[in-house]
Amino acid sequence: MKVIGFIASPRKEGNTAWIVNTILEGAKEQGAETQSWQFSDLDIKPCQGCLGCHKGDRGCVIDDDMQRLYGPLEQADALVLGLPIYMGQMSAQAKIFTDRLFAHITPRFSPYYKAGKAAKKKLTLVFNQGNPDSGMFQSYFDYTKKMFQLLEFDVGEVQVVAGMRNEAAHERQGLHAAMRDVGSSLVSDRFPE
Ligand SMILES: Cc1cc2nc3c(=O)[nH]c(=O)nc-3n(C[C@H](O)[C@H](O)[C@H](O)COP(=O)(O)O)c2cc1C
Fold this sequence. Notes:
18% strand, 7 strands, alpha/beta, 7 helices, seven-stranded mixed beta sheet
């Protein structure tokens, strides 16, 4: 099983990176092949709305680092998307990535659909935020889950790590074990719901 993590934070060693890497650690312990990508290392341009991905058979026509991700995205069985909350929403880096999935999920370009497979790719959404109230952005988390479900992902329970204002994720008691469990559940098919 291949599990890919995406770190949608500009801070390479921030909370999002630690959380995603810990989830991947849990998946790896269960035998998964894992890989992680930092959006801060990639130059990904916003979708231009040219619909070039609908016109030919090349997929997205923008020549940037998103092209490095489309292949691994198609190969992966499960994705982990780590999202810091910025102004009550996913970071700009995450939104740009999500818009660029438009080319990937179009049935015409997805080898997934071409192969006629019915199984959906698993997706774990893991938010982290400064505010200590984990329900503060619940309607946004629900909306985001729904949006990715409409994109045909098999989205599990949204994970929220709150209270990251004056504390680093790696210092939070019990968080390492909790995030590792999220990763192992991905592999053992006990998708937390
Ligand atoms: C520009 C900016 C906006 C933020 N907006 C919010 C917010 O609206 N609500 C919140 O709870 N935390 C907010 N935060 C705090 C981050 O979500 C939090 O510190 C998170 O752990 C950062 O992840 P990182 O360490 O991977 O960068 C904001 C942080 C920044 C830099």
